[in-house]
Amino acid sequence: LFDALAPQPADTLLSLIALHRDDPRPHKLDLGVGVYRDDSGATPVMRAVKAAEARLLETQSSKSYLGPEGDIRYAELLQPIVFGRAVPADTFVGVQTPGGTGALRLAAELINAARKNAKGPGAKVWLGTPTWPNHAPIMTAAGLTVATYRYYDQATQTVLFDEMMAALQGAAAGDVVLLHGCCHNPVGADLDRSQWRAVAEVVAQRGLIPLIDLAYQGLGDGLEEDAAGARLVLDAAPDALLAYSCDKNFGLYRERVGALYAKGGTPARTELMRSNILLLARVNWSMPPDHGAALVRVILDDAALTADWRAELDGMRSRINRVRQALAAGDPWLAPLGHHRGMFSLLPLSPDQVATLRREHAVYMVGSGRANLAGLTLDTVPQFIDAVRAVR
Length: 392
Ligand code: PLP
Ligand code: TYF
Prior knowledge:
binds (2S)-2-hydroxy-3-(4-hydroxyphenyl)propanoic acid, 392 residues, pyridoxal phosphate binding, 13 strands, binds pyridoxal-5'-phosphate, globular, alpha/beta, PyrdxlP-dep_Trfase, Aspartate Aminotransferase, domain 1, pyridoxal phosphate, two-stranded parallel sheet
């Protein structure tokens, strides 16, 4: 049977981890996989997470099953951070998921379940390109059809907002539009406030369903600022989905901490979404892994731990933005990076140039030209600028 399988390429982002690890050159720079790094190149466990782990070890009295929705209090405590307020239980469903990836998959399967019953066309998922390489495979694995528009021009480093709007204006009612909430991966360029307003308007007018991927809240301009665009769209759309990840802003990566929020236009529809989300969670993972979400719950349930988490997150964001400004000031070619936010920027480099950077300069970036700027420090910025100048 299994001889019939088609060979599949490895995940190019995750393969970079091993390539960098096995490079003996001491001056090597890792701008590959999207994890935060501090000034010493480490991806530390956050202080509040360590404290919450100690508390959990002391106080957790059972590891008995929860349910397909996971830790309910966790999903409730995240609401003010994501939405700016507690959202009404009769029109919002929130469940814990294995990472933002699990939330995306669950969202896609919910859409597909509805699409199959509706028996019409529709429920095409619109992706702006380039996007996170897992987006399209997750959507198609769940049975959905993907359509694309150009979001960003790599050569000129500009957001192609007119092309995006044209695509959304041409989309059919019931089509899904996947939006990066903030800190676009891989390009780094987000929509500004007036562009978010225009997207919210067209989503409402055309009856589109937003699927917002919010995986880097707090790493751009701040927790509130980074959710502002998503909130505009959520307010405008009667039905919407939001796939959330705590893996970057709580530094929990391998613990796999996410949430899916679904907004239904009516209580009846919301209840349908809820029961289907729970069924789909059950057939995929039964219930999500507990530990990481329990840590987030412990932190958000405690004012002092929350304050410390926010302070450390502020420090992480400031560090990334200092590196950005140093790059932007260090070479006119890198000036657009000053306007980008989050860990990533997509540089106008060819795969050959990226390969040369790796081979001759020990600079590890994704072949697309994506750089994780958290892999730099103010001390290594000049080394990076010199290497990039050498291959240009
Ligand atoms: N969405 C985007 C844009 C991402 O970059 C990531 C990164 O991993 C995810 C979703 C998934 O996050 P998680 O690691 O929580 O599954
Ligand atoms: O884009 C990145 O680097 C992060 C991490 O299959 C990641 O989002 C990359 C690939 C993957 C899972 C996470």
